[in-house]
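Hi all, long-time lurker, first post. I run a small reading group and we've been trying to get comfortable going from sequence to structure in the token notation. Rather than ask abstract questions, I figured I'd post a concrete chain and ask someone more experienced to write out its structure so we can walk through it together at our next meeting. Sequence below, copied exactly:
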Amino acid sequence: MSTPAEPRAIAARLPNRPGVYRMLDATGRVIYVGKASSLRKRVGSYFNKRQDSVKVARMVALIVDIEVTITGSEGEALILENSLIKSLRPRYNIMLRDDKSYPYIYLSKGEPFPRLAFHRGIRKGPGRYFGPYPSAGSVRDSLALMQRIFPLRQCEDTVFRARTRPCLQYQIKRCTGPCVGLIAPDDYAEDVRHAELFLEGKNSLVIAEMAGRMSQAATLLDYERAARLRDQIANLRRAQEKQGIEGVDADVDIIACASRDGVACVELLFIRGGRSVGTRAFFPRLADDAEPESVLAAFLPQHYLDGEVPDEIVISHEVPDQALIEAALATVSGHRVRLTAAVRGDRGKWLRLARTNAALTLGRRLASSASVRERYEALQEALGLDSLPQRLECFDISHTMGEAPVASCVVFDADGPAKSDYRRFNIEGVTGGDDYGAIAQAIERRYTRLQKGEGKFPDILLIDGGAGQLGRVAAVLDELQVSGLTVLGVAKGETRRPGAETLLLMGREQPIFLPPDSPALHLIQHIRDEAHRFAIAGHRGRRQRTRNQSPLEDIPQLGPKRRRLLLTRFGGLQALRRAGVDDLAQVPGISHTLAQAVYDVLHGESV
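-- Answer (accepted) --
Happy to help. Here is the structure in token form:
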């Protein structure tokens, strides 16, 4: 393979100083960005020796020009290299595919009853931000857990100030009702302080303080307060057993990499305040096969130099320039950062778990259909989401002229339909044909359970319906204080033909229209049709059961023996309907009151 002469000459004239170099092809496009402690030696190495890597040899053959930027140190070069890779997206660099803003848990300050809430975006409000967390779902799970232990308010300030009675969160014991004065400010402040300690990983201190307060309350015969503290301690111990890491009370990221067949997976496990708060998988773009060491060496600066950096990062492989990366991360974060590959004990256990997850996730990625991934990526782009959705839920209502209404909830994950997570809800107490009331009831029942920890929150909630349904759903989610959730209404177009759907994104005024061949629309249609099918099947089953049941069974005082006597005396249900109350009361064992109840049921009146 011949090497272009001009780039070789350029390399020979470069200074022996640290900096960043950019390789350009014949079109002037940057195809590779690198850093060096000596620009002359590093760039010259591409042209002065035979390249064993097919990737590098292919890249060198395309180089026609080289641009450099001299920096004061190799650490500065690393930071500049990361910035250029993200802005130029060179073809031959290992590149993270998505660069999302992570969510946080926000605890407000400067008010008598601080708010604990989901937050994503600029952190400028007065208060503390705990995180980052790997996903919106992990934040919601953590908030739901904390509501069971420290029932702090999560409602918006405008809602809090306007309330005149306790909300549903108070009724299900997930809030202490500060909006209407049901808890003293001092007691609320104590819950706030314990919540902060919990988020900092100081669980043992919280348990010890609560145990002391519980003993004091019992001594003072305040058994109700003692029982509340006992339940808080029990919930805290369960959380500690489920998520705690003995000996780890700081923020630690544990990263494992697996690569095969030209695809790499980086699995990041988040430890915050001594608790595992979730994982996230990355699939960096590779120009060719790459070893885990080089993938991690590219991942670390790209992921951390523009974001939050924990005190310790445990990695599955030693990486080149490890000391340099540590120094650069310390510079941007303002605190010491330690990269560790050789770990034992609890850190070793979690690193093994991260390795296992990376291998499994990579296997699923290689085995999954490209069209499935394409649909999820298209949906992310269509809705303007920060990250690729991992879990979707869709609700639909089915009934016949208002009879036997059933709501369905179907779930899709990265592998498609997750049928074990499907749920149905028999709608009760709603006027026949009131789809708005039916969807509101289904959402309330479903998300009340999720708030209690009985399932996983989705990234996207889809509703088969238009603005009316979407408005009722928004009201229910506000009442339940569910935040950070993307809610999408799928309304049928004027022609009601597939492909003409109107998408209504909660929080956005203008509707979204996708072309009929859009992979995102195909995914939405798939989950909508599956919800419709599941709802119809449930409705038909419920309707059949209702029609096979005698209306006499709805009367609690009328047992099987009396039902048989009535049907035998009058010769069947039709003749029984023609009978009057006095006729019914002549049957042995049927009082006048019971006869009136039978008559009312047979003629559509409530018992």
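A couple of things your group might point at:
DSSP finds 21 helices and 18 strands in the chain.
The chain has a mean pLDDT of 84.
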